[in-house]
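Quick question, first post here. What does this chain look like in 3D?
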Amino acid sequence: MAAQTEPRSGLFWGWEYGENGWKAGMDSNLLKLGRFGMHLSILDRGVSDPDTLTPSGGDTYIVGPTAVNGWVGWEDRVVIWDGTQWVNITPRIGWVAYIEDEEVLSAYKAAGWSTGVAL
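> Answer (accepted):
Ran it through. Tokens below.
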């Protein structure tokens, strides 16, 4: 069976064990779950230039407006430093994230990330 993408989670599925691409697809799924499937804790959502950061593995941001350099076109996306590069994903409506520097919970809506609720 050819692999397919599950539209809600973006995870791949449908391989027979040993089928070409099975390992790479499953590894990709596990990375997505580990990076984005847990509760999102965001360091900052106002950064638009990754070159201003000195990230550590696992550092997570929501890209700010008018992104530049390595984040061009990634505005409002969630990005994680995997230790060597930035990995990004487009949030889905209903995602909730804790914004650490603001101490708020923010939800992703059709219009983008909400201002948040203070904790």
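The chain has two domains: 1-38, 39-119.
Strands lie at 4-5, 12-13, 40-42, 60-62, 78-81, 86-89, 96-99, 104-109, 112-113, 117-118.
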